[in-house]
């Protein structure tokens, strides 16, 4: 059994969300956090083999869907998820249909739901 943790990049403009995400998942995964899409892009450039990216939807400058479209075009093997407090919108539905995101996850997040989504994406 490989003891190396899978690395996950989580992008959210709310510091409390970044902290909660890291606290909930750091025992199972190696968590990298970014406060915006630009920061997330820099982290990916330095760690191009990150297999999972989870992004908030509503962020200043670049929203989560636009950020994840950029991620998928540069890192096609990366599995992307949207974590949002909003119900599914036509834009989110389109991102799922275009295979930009695997699924959208609701805030406040359910740890078990996110772990199941990540494990499914990795297999």
The CATH homologous superfamily is called Response regulator
Shape field: globular
User: What would CATH call the architecture?
Assistant: 3-Layer(aba) Sandwich
What composes the largest sheet?
A: 5 strands, parallel
* Number of continuous helical runs: 5
The tally of beta strands, per DSSP, is 5
What share of residues are in beta strands? Answer: 15-25%
Provide structural commentary:
With 123 residues, the chain is α/β, with parallel strands linked by helices. It has one domain (7-122): Response regulator (Rossmann fold, 3-Layer(aba) Sandwich), CATH 3.40.50.2300. Helix content is 42%, strand content 20%. It has five helices and five strands, in the order βαβαβαβαβα. It has helices spanning 15-25, 37-46, 64-74, 90-97, 111-122, and strands spanning 7-11, 30-34, 52-56, 79-84, 103-106. A five-stranded parallel beta sheet has the order 2-1-3-4-5, with helices on both faces. The longest helix is centred in the C-terminal third of the chain and has 12 residues, at 111-122. The radius of gyration is 13 Å and the shape is globular. It starts with 6 loop residues before the first strand and ends with a helix. The mean pLDDT is 94.
């Amino acid at each position: 059994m490989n003891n190396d943790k899978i690395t996950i990049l989580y992008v959210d403009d709310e510091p409390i969300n970044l902290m909660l995400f890291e606290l909930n998942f750091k025992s199972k995964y190696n968590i990298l956090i970014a406060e915006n899409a630009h920061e997330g892009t820099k982290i990916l450039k330095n760690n191009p083999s990150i297999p999972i990216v989870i992004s908030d939807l509503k962020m200043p400058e670049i929203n989560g869907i636009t950020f994840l479209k950029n991620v998928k075009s540069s890192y096609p093997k990366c599995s992307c998820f949207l974590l949002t407090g909003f119900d599914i919108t036509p834009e989110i539905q389109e991102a799922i249909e275009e295979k930009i995101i695997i699924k959208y996850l609701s805030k406040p997040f359910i740890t078990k739901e996110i772990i199941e989504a990540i494990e499914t994406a990795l297999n």
